[in-house]
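[Solved] Which block belongs to which protein?

Original post:
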Amino acid sequence: MTLSTSAELSIPASCYCGAVKYIVHSLPTSPPKLCHCTNCRKAMASGVQWAGYMPASSIEILSKETVKGFARCQSFFPGVVAFERCFCSQCGSRVWNVLVKEEDGRQVRYLGVFPGLFDDPDDAKIEGFRPKSHLFCGEEVALTQWRGFDEMQLLEGFSSAKTAKTDK
């Protein structure tokens, strides 16, 4: 069964401190991507940004008063007229991106959510957020270009070994 409507999908998400909470009620409108551009890497303080975008109406925001939107920046994508990164005012976690696109002569607002904020990352409902492509691979950090990740030890916590998945 494909989960795609608010009646079928409800994925709770929150920031690090829990002050920002929201529920995702749809799958992304286009396949999620891993972005390696310098802009996204620096904004996420990570080697990659993983996000899925959907119409803003698909997100039920439960605690809007703790969200700060700033860091407006230029978008590199055709048809995008505005792009903004939003954060929790308490802990500073990135909570979503706001992207405004020009579609059929009108502006449509999308939110880009980060699956890393989903409260239950093992929930089968998040399969639709599996990344399908990489963007800006020419700007990829050397660390993500290393090969041999499959041979690395996987740890459940700081010390207990986890069995590696072999389903490639």
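(Second protein starts here: sequence line, then its structure tokens.)
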Amino acid sequence: MGRGTVARALAAVLLLWRWQRAGAGEYVVGDVAFGWDSWAREHAFAVGDVLVFQYVSSQHNVYEVSEGTYWSCDTGGGGVRVKYTSGYYRVVLAEARTYWFICDLPGHCLGGMKVAVNVSTAAGGR
């Protein structure tokens, strides 16, 4: 395979990748305030969308958890899937399913600092 053929193939792959990602949305979770669940209901999420979590790491964290842990706010039972603690994280919604996120600092989850994000296979309102 010649150089020109390889370059054309690579260009085609990059164009296809850009085309597939063009419809993906990026969402800052909560936008301004912590009404995460009501915020999530205002959006239609699709596979490939990105959630952006921005927070003061000494005051909050974000854990992706199981549904049971989401409802109980108890992370001691092994329902934690991923811990995000840096203060800034981008989560790619790679599958059509419900993603469950909570803040695990004392009282935060029970106080409503949690969000369930339902992701569909096709773009909803975009």
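Accepted answer:
You had them paired correctly. Confirming on the second one: Residues 26 and 51 are 6 Å apart (CA to CA).
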